[in-house]
Amino acid sequence: MPVCAQLQPKPNQGLIGIARMAAASPRVRERAEAEFFALQARSALNRESSGRMPFAWTINPYRGCEFGCHYCYARYTHEFMELWDSRDFERKIYAKVNAPGLLRAELRQARDRGQPVALGTATDPYQPAERQFKVTRRLLEVFAEFEGLEFSITTKGVLILRDLDLLRRNAERHRLSVGITVTTTDERLARLLEPKAPPPARRLEAVRTLAAAGIRAGVMAMPILPALTDSPRSLEALARAAAEHGAKFLYGNLLFLMPSAMKQFMPFLEREFPRLVTRYRKLYARSAYLHGEYKEEIAKLVASLRARYGLEGRRDDQPNVWHPQLSLPFAGGEAEDKSC
Question: What's residue 340's pLDDT?
Answer without folding.
Answer: 39
